[in-house]
Amino acid sequence: MPRIALYTFGILKSSHETDKLADFESAAPTVFNEAETAEGFIAHGSLARPDLYGKSKLGHDFGPWGMYVAPRFYPDNPQPDDGTMIATLSLWRDVESARKFVYAGFHRAALRRRSDWFRKPDWPGYVLWWVSDDHVPTWSEGANTLEALQDNGPTASGFDFKTRFDSRDRPVERIRDQAKPASARTYEVSLHEGG
């Protein structure tokens, strides 16, 4: 049965080592623990290299998840891996499981603070795509799929929570509860636009 891959990417306002990111650093383990116990969670790339938890650098090898690489949105500096790149790569049973994790619990609270920690992006903050049940997505796939989402908009090869595709590449219409007043409806919002 196909599974959903979720790749996220952001650039911190300052490197991990600064006091400005103390709250971010302390929140990360709770977010990862919450993900690992969420319904529909299968795995994430960091599990392949627990020795690199919180210290991933470009070029680190994550076994079947591949080399840790950056999408083209990461600036070319004299020190291109200055500790400001944050990327995650995870596998989920389905889109709805991933969405529920992203927009609930401790992760939702962390999302509300992202403008404190991350630069405002000119690119999508995440991308979803379907993979076969025997495929482990790679960091390179995630970076390339995010770039394609930026270039082409949502397609069956890479999409967001607002514009979804099913595992057979068919667009999925969002269902809204019309019985509730507009103020009580739940709308899906992309990671980089608010949550």
As for the number of domains, it is: 1
What is the fold named in CATH at topology level?
Answer: Alpha-Beta Plaits
Strands ordered across the widest β-sheet: 2-3-1-4
Instruction: Report the mean per-residue pLDDT as an integer.
Output: 85
Share of residues in helices? 25-40%
Spatial extent as radius of gyration: 16 Å
Give the termini distance in whole angstroms.
30 Å
Provide structural commentary.
- There is one protein chain.
- With 195 residues, the protein is an alpha+beta fold.
- Helix content is 25%, strand content 16%.
- The protein contains 5 helices and 6 strands, in the order E-H-E-E-H-H-H-E-H-E-E.
- The strands form 2 sheets. The chain has a 4-stranded antiparallel sheet. Strands 5-6 form a two-stranded antiparallel ribbon.
- A hairpin with a 5-residue loop joins strand 5 and strand 6.
- The radius of gyration is 16 Å and the shape is globular.
- It starts with a strand and ends in a 23-residue tail after the last strand.
Which key phrases capture this entry?
alpha+beta, 195 residues, Alpha-Beta Plaits, four-stranded antiparallel sheet, globular, two-stranded antiparallel ribbon
Task: Itemize the secondary structure elements and their pairings.
Elements lengths: L2 E9 L10 H15 L4 E4 L40 E8 L2 H8 L2 H8 L1 H4 L8 E6 L7 H14 L11 E2 L5 E2 L23
Antiparallel strand pairs: 1-3, 1-4, 2-3, 5-6
Helix pairs in contact: 1-3
Summarize the structure.
The chain has 195 residues and is α+β, with helices and mostly antiparallel strands.
